[in-house]
Write a structure and sequence with these properties.
Shape: globular
Distance between the termini: 22 Å
Number of strands: 15
CATH architecture: 4-Layer Sandwich
CATH topology: Metallo-beta-lactamase, Chain A
Strand content: 25-35%
Largest sheet: 8 strands, mixed
Length: 295
């Protein structure tokens, strides 16, 4: 298995619009591990389109409990179970993730119980181990070290950037955050920094399209990073590649890739990738080692 990062869903926010991209989810294949980071709507289809057998689910990480990061978590695991999942899955998430999983299984109790009895399946509730984490080291096994940093995403307090280190490879996900300077130290020297990004010129059109007016605008400005700010974090951290993801807005016809590049180039001169659904980012430090797998 070739180590790779696949950006399954590239948009920020939970709303879906015709022809637009899907919310947050990523696949990280590294050191023989199949790792899913966040489970917004579309994650299950994204994984299968990326060639992943759902029976191979291994580690799942949820950065925070906003719906665009967690809404399809239960359905992903359940669908993997119906596809033949029989090996344990470890689900890592902030405080409250265990409650989510418990309630999902309760909501699906009829289906779970009848499939165990009628189809001879193992109990899905016995297959999933829950690890609720805070800031600091999250896990270390088979040479893979995962650590977390609490970031600035009000009003959500339990929102965490994640860093995956294996041998000489390191990948950092910013999660959702306003400009947060400690993230530079957390991401120092990383091969890839996947950082959320927002474009100021698209905010007014997004607010008008979505509704909620001043309240939504206030949230976006207080809780998310502009592309230039993502570039500052990448520059200060000295990362090898910056990937702009969780794009806000991601489905504005007046904004294209050139606009994202122009914004981030004010603060970042290094290797750069602008996310789109299905984009594969290789982990070999070669800027040509990426390609779309679907879409």
């Amino acid at each position: 298995m070739t180590d790779r990062l696949v950006l399954l869903g590239s948009k920020g926010g939970p709303a879906l619009r015709p022809g637009g991209p899907w919310p947050s989810s990523s696949l990280l294949e590294i050191g023989g591990r199949t790792i899913v980071v966040d489970c917004g709507l579309g994650v299950t289809r994204g994984l299968t389109d990326a060639g992943i057998s759902l029976k191979a689910l291994d580690l799942i990480f949820i950065t925070h409990l906003h719906s665009d990061h967690v809404l399809e978590l239960g359905p992903l695991i359940h669908t993997a179970w119906t596809a033949g999942l029989a090996a344990p899955v470890t689900l890592f998430g902030p405080p409250g993730i265990g409650y989510y999983w418990q309630r999902f299984c309760q909501a699906m109790e009829f289906d779970i119980e009848i499939r165990i009895a009628d189809e001879g399946r193992p109990d899905i509730r016995d297959l999933v181990s829950i690890v609720e984490f805070g800031e600091g080291q999250v896990a270390e096994e088979r040479g893979l070290k995962i650590s977390a940093l609490r970031v600035d995403h009000p009003p959500v307090t339990d929102c965490f950037a994640l860093r995956f280190d294996l041998a000489r490879q390191s990948i950092v996900f910013s999660s959702d955050t306003a400009f947060f300077s400690p993230l530079s130290d957390f991401a120092e020297g990383a091969d890839i920094l996947v950082h959320e990004a927002m474009l100021e010129e698209g905010i007014e059109r997004l607010v008008a399209k979505t509704g909620n007016g001043a309240r939504l605008r206030e949230h976006l400005l207080a809780s998310h990073s502009f592309a230039e700010e993502a570039g500052r974090i990448a520059s200060d951290a000295g990362v090898k590649r910056l990937v702009l993801n969780h794009l806000i807005p991601a489905d504005d016809p007046e904004i294209g890739e050139a606009d994202w590049i122009a914004a981030v180039r004010k603060t970042w001169a290094g290797d750069l990738t602008i996310a789109r659904d299905g984009l594969v980012v290789g982990l070999e430090h070669d800027p040509e080692k990426w390609k779309p797998v679907f879409g």
